[in-house]
Design goal:
There is one protein chain. This protein has 432 residues and is of the alpha/beta class. The strands form two sheets. Strands 3-2-1-4-5-6-7-8 form an eight-stranded mixed sheet, with helices on both faces. Strands 11-10-9-12-13-14 form a six-stranded parallel sheet. Helices cover 45% and strands 14% of the residues. It has three domains: 2-194, Rossmann fold; 204-287, N-(1-d-carboxylethyl)-l-norvaline Dehydrogenase, domain 2 (Orthogonal Bundle); 291-428, Rossmann fold (3-Layer(aba) Sandwich). It has 19 helices and 14 strands. Bound molecules: uridine-5'-diphosphate-xylopyranose.
Amino acid sequence: MKLTVIGTGYLGATHAAAMAELGHEVLGIDTDSSKVARLNAGEVPFFEPGLPELSQRNLQAGRLRFTTSYDEIGAFGEVHFICVGTPQRKGSNAADLSYVHGSVDALIPVLQAGSVVVGKSTVPAGTAAGIAQQVQAAGGDLVWNPEFLREGFAVADTLTPDRVVLGAESDRAIKVMHDVYARILESGTPLIVTDFATAELVKVAANSFLATKISFINAMAEVCEATGADVTQLATALSHDERIGGKFLHAGLGFGGGCLPKDIRAFIARAEELGVDQAVEFLKEIDAINLRRRARMIDLARQLCSGTLAGMRVGVLGAAFKPNSDDIRDSPALDVAAAIQREGAAVRVYDPEAMANARISFPALAYSSSAAEACADADVVLHLTEWSEFRTMHPSVLSDVVRQRNIVDGRNALDRDLWRSEGWVYRALGRQ
Ligand code: UDX
């Protein structure tokens, strides 16, 4: 089939390459011509394991191409995927839908009758119904097909998703989607066909649940800190109950990134508009718990520096919002690093992949090209993103370069006993 993908960020670039991998002919579009040139040359403009290989293989096979021209995608495709971003609106909790509406407005004049438009962007409930009217007036049909991919696992999550959700009003459009995803569905992937509002809500409800799980265990971490209990052992004990499970019960610095924080805020904003704000009032507390972990991290760093961070040297390990990603959107690590610098500390940051992005967004922080360099003469080391490079690093790599052997493990991912046995003062979130 001939498919187009509008927007080539994490979602769109991965979706385009994955659809080509399924055997379709795919044309991706982005308004950023330098990005399009890089993608056509087989470069992926962000760090995502396995994606460069997938893109290159399909570019070479002639199934994948990128353009900046809407005229070209209108003439090319019978199915158009909308994969543009819906960031948090400035000065508000609500989602900024300008990229979604902008791409639909640009697509409609070139849409061929009988085409299917597929929304994958995360949008507030009620958005699809409005877009459906526009698409129908142009002779096409709309499907809402939320995406659940995790950065770092985007390729696998797209090619072998947990489930496929299709919100639609037209049987014809559902049939077309069966053809698009034939290989995925034939392997037994659960399919949920529903209305637009449910499809839109599945995504925000899923992200709200995941955020709730993380903030739940982080709330328990606060209680553990007050009682001397150990949140990591608590989580392990909870995880043996199959109804609870162990995933997303990792206590630490909390969630960040381009999805969970803004999606729960957009959900709160939309629920207020719908008059059901009480139903998601708890998400405000989920957000607050999450942000309190960052404050606690700074408190622990201050405690290890005898009560003040002013004039101290702080080595920061990690800048990305999570390992295996170079994404720094709402990164807890950089938020903490910047706050500590504002308290008068000299902060040096090292991250295996996210340095280029961090430098652009946080130009006032200092950066180093290795963990040892970032921690040179440090009074305290902060472990903020649990890259395997840090998890597997022997303390001796840092022992002789730091001024004081103080470390705060913001991700409960280091071997506490090992660090202590090497003479370090080890502190963590939610345990002694
Ligand atoms: C998330 C959802 O998982 C995905 O389904 C959705 O499509 C987009 O949002 P992503 O933002 O890539 O994906 O990251 P995820 O792996 O979910 O992690 C989110 C944040 O939570 C990270 O900052 C991570 O460090 C943190 N986290 C995760 C925890 O603090 N504890 C955990 O137990 C799990």
